[in-house]
# Entry
Amino acid sequence: MSTDLNWFKSSYSGDQGGECLEIAPTPTTLHLRDSKSPHRTLQLAPTTWTAFLRALPALPALPPVPKCLPRVH
# Structure
């Protein structure tokens, strides 16, 4: 199913790869995936995504994650 979608990469992602969130919007669903694991997807209703984005400013800031951490599988 996710191969038939039109995936977009964040404008903050560089051209050398790395960690990247991709999104494929449809009228009823937002499909999200990690570019390193494209076979795994998360589907959200647009209202759920909007609620998540609106809640972000109220969350406490997280400490920066060191870049040397191993990737979790």
